[in-house]
Amino acid sequence: MLRSILVTAGLLACALCLTSWSIETDRSTEYKHGLLEIREEARHFIERENAKGQQQWKVLEPNAKVLVPPCAVPLRTQWTPKSLDRSKPSVTVICAAAVPNAVMSDWDVAVPVQQKSN
User: Whole-angstrom Cα distance, residue 52 to residue 85?
Assistant: First the structure.
C-alpha cells in the first residue's frame, strides 16, 4: 500500500513539473543553451525576412526534446536548406562553437515556421 502511494505521489510530482515547463522558462544556464534564446534568434531572423515584404512567416516552438550546450559565440540563423528534406519550412539556428564540453563542439537547431494567414 505504501509503495502504491509513493508511486502515485511520484507520478503526480512529475506531472506537475511537466505542466510548469514551457519554452518561456527554458533559459540558458552554464550547462545548456535555452530553447527560449534559440526561438528568439529564429524570431529575429523571421522579422528581417518579413520586412522584405514577400511572404509573411511566424515562428513556431522548437522541439522541446532538444538539449544543447551553451554557445561560446554569437548565434547565426538561416533558412534550413531544402536538401535536408524537412516536411515543413524552418529556420536553422547555428552555434559554430559551443562552450567546451564532452558532447559536441558545435550544433544547429531547426525551428519550424509557418506562413501567416491573411
Answer: 25
- What distance in Å separates the CA atoms of residue 74 and residue 55, rounded to the nearest whole number? 27
**H-run or E-run covering 2:** helix 2-20
What confidence tens digit (pLDDT) does each residue in 24-65 have? 888 889 999 999 999 999 999 999 999 998 889 999 999 999
Q: How many CA atoms lie within 13 A of 115 on its CB side?
A: 5
Cell 505542466, residue?
19
The dihedral sign for the CA sequence 111, 34, 36, 19: positive
Q: Nine-digit cell at 25?
A: 522558462
Report the alpha-carbon distance of residue 89 to residue 1 in Å, rounded: 51
- Amino acid code (one letter) for 4: S
Per DSSP, the residues of 39-99 read HHHHHHHHHHHHHTSSS-EEE-PPPTT--BPPBSS--EEEEPPGGG--SS-EEEEEESSBP
